[in-house]
Amino acid sequence: MKVYVEPIGGLCNRMRVIASAYQLIRPQGGKLVVKWTANEELNCPAKALFSLPRDIRVVDVKGGDNLAEKLVYYRLRLGYRHRVGNNQVMNAKQAGNLIPQDKTYYETCETFHKDSRDVDCSIFTPAPELETLAREKIGKITQGGQHPVIGLHIRRTDHSVSIRQSPTELFCRVLEARLKENPDTRFYLATDDGSLRKFFSHTYNRDAEIVFFNDSKALGRDTPAGIKAAFVELLTLSMTRRIYGSCGSSYTDMAAAMGGIPLDYVTADAMDGILGKL
């Protein structure tokens, strides 16, 4: 059995597609072929970020190179019989998990699991140099275990659901409640909005460094450096004790899944439950 997938969208959407497909075909002895396109949404080859199990073959393609794209297309086209698009995947899994079929090519940002929380994300082995950066950051924050570290993920830019349902003031309330519970607590903030870094630093880091950030200045996803910085940020977030994340963000979900740590979505409806746990 051989299944082909072309995961589309951002980093975590792509990772979830790969992990979901592999998890569902592995019990049948299936092999997975992944077409990974570096483009304006994610301009970095997969091999620069992580490695995968040996029975997953990744074909890295640079978007915009029409000749290379065509060569990869025709080479892969020899191996599959059917092609399934994103809407078809969405519709097919309404009744339950969609089991990928042999010699079929799926182009999607959707997981094959009906519930994406069921996806096992342990198949990704981070590039050693990127994992080292994340562990060094966590070590700096904890200062040898003196400080528990809580993760915050605030998604902004073009993500209207997160902006509307997970406003910044709610994250501030959570942070302040956690500090009141334990003044030694420190926070790692992952965000795609540079102005939020400045806001949290100015608001909470006046007397001591309470909120920490990714050291990279590259926030864009259109360069390899920006994508690598985003992946290091994801790894660092996954190494915290708990994540308070943005509603509707696959990045929040992926960080919690990779770290096997508790996750709360910061929304107005959830605040009583979140604060009640403290």
How would you sum up this structure in a few lines?
This protein is an alpha/beta fold. The chain folds into 2 domains: 2-118, Rossmann fold (3-Layer(aba) Sandwich), CATH 3.40.50; 128-276, Rossmann fold, CATH 3.40.50. The protein has helices at 11-25, 66-77, 86-92, 128-142, 160-165, 168-181, 194-204, 224-238, 250-259, 271-276, and strands spanning 2-7, 31-38, 50-51, 56-62, 82-84, 104-108, 125-126, 149-154, 186-191, 211-212, 243-245, 263-265.
Kindly describe this structure.
The structure is a single chain. The chain has helices at residues 11-25, 66-77, 86-92, 128-142, 160-165, 168-181, 194-204, 224-238, 250-259, 271-276, and strands at residues 2-7, 31-38, 50-51, 56-62, 82-84, 104-108, 125-126, 149-154, 186-191, 211-212, 243-245, 263-265. The model has no long low-confidence stretch (mean pLDDT 92). It has 278 residues and is α/β, with parallel strands linked by helices. It contains 10 helices and 12 strands. 40% of the residues lie in helices and 19% in strands. The protein has a 5-stranded parallel beta sheet with strand order 4-2-1-6-5, with helices on both faces. It has 2 domains: 2-118, 3-Layer(aba) Sandwich (Rossmann fold); 128-276, Rossmann fold (3-Layer(aba) Sandwich), CATH 3.40.50. The relative contact order is 0.15.
